């Protein structure tokens, strides 16, 4: 390997490691090597075999190299206007939560129009390995889930479990089924870190104690401990709130959860539990009162609502390509701040009267965009917990701001280092200046031009890069798009249905 290739590969490994939240030492432990060896690899000072590259890619859940079929890439012929209408698919994050919540129910759960994405596939592999029968019923994505009388946790597919960050949400449902159990975890999830400790703090009032050693969560449940006072979440996280709700659902009593996330996936979980007979007061607010049931055995049919992040993705594609398209079934309740900000920036669009999603609760509209001349917003763009601007929608404002006149400050205060990936827009002709790990300054308007870019390891910045390529003159290549398939179903094909020209290919 040449020094140039080694440096490029080293940079990819470093970025994937940081995105996973690992230190060099943690990666070294998984690879059975030294921290100094990992340091040499990331600096491009270490020759690498294909076997080692494959091991690193598997450890980091990143297709740095793939033996066999090879990673999937996209070739984008940009500069084309889009047209037509497209339906928003069901929520990825709600689908993931509902798969975990199905473990609460001894009866049959049928979920309608589940997103067939890699994150869902990994969870299904885990569920199947412990004895849960899952069946895709049709091409529409309807999914039937039938649990066994007893789960076989000893047979859990550890590899699949480590490849989904959602495995942490098994803690809430399982603590009522097992007195002691183990779950695999990806090595970056150390106790006391931001991503794990809030979950454990929320579940301790139900008697759950967890130790993390040897690549496993070792969980013990003390049945004498029950919530004696309201549970106050230390952070208003979506998955933390969902774990607490699922624990409360099978607790035979009343649980009050304060500082709860009222976000879209949490609401879908609550609507599903309502069908199981678990009454929840305060849905859509930061205080939930859960009236639990010790045993749940119900055959239930539920349709999760549409995905506001996908709706924002499609809206962004329309804006940057200056296109008139209709985005049908957009969950407006979770897009109102985003739409208000876009109106301030000069976006012209029409919206239909509101109607209800198939769950009978979530408010939907159809949005029709019109080509608009945008200007930078007066204030910085930053996320807030619902009902504020969604943290997952923030990156889309970077590429939108790049097409607007003026300077826009994007402040991603939640995620360490995610803002860095927004500077990939510079490879396509953007003017994005990184101020610190949380803030970028975007200068517009931008005349994007085609380029070859390695797909960022973060989902939303990856889609932002793809959307910029739709607006870029000439042909672009986006390499190794597994991360996009993890969160979006057939995104390239669906954009093509609107007139985009995106080709999927692999290297020979």
Automatic annotation (TrEMBL):
GO term, biological process aspect, one: cell division
EC number(s) given by UniProt: 2.5.1.7
Enzyme class: transferase
Family label: Belongs to the EPSP synthase family. MurA subfamily.
CDD domains: HTH_XRE (cd00093)
Coiled coil segments of this chain: none
GO cellular component: cytoplasm
Localization per Swiss-Prot or TrEMBL: Cytoplasm
UniProt cross-references to NCBIfam families, sorted A to Z: PRK09369.1 (NF006873)
Protein name: UDP-N-acetylglucosamine 1-carboxyvinyltransferase
Function: Cell wall formation. Adds enolpyruvyl to UDP-N-acetylglucosamine.
Swiss-Prot/TrEMBL catalytic activity: phosphoenolpyruvate + UDP-N-acetyl-alpha-D-glucosamine = UDP-N-acetyl-3-O-(1-carboxyvinyl)-alpha-D-glucosamine + phosphate
Pfam family, one: EPSP_synthase
Organism annotation: Kribbella shirazensis
Domain HTH cro/C1-type: residue ranges: 13-67
Pathway where this protein functions: Cell wall biogenesis; peptidoglycan biosynthesis
Family matches, as InterPro entries: Cro/C1-type_HTH, Enolpyruvate_Tfrase_dom, Enolpyruvate_Tfrase_sf, Lambda_DNA-bd_dom_sf, MurA_subfamily, RNA3'P_cycl/enolpyr_Trfase_a/b
Keyword annotations from UniProtKB, A to Z: Cell cycle, Cell division, Cell shape, Cell wall biogenesis/degradation, Cytoplasm, Peptidoglycan synthesis, Transferase
Molecular functions (GO terms): DNA binding; UDP-N-acetylglucosamine 1-carboxyvinyltransferase activity
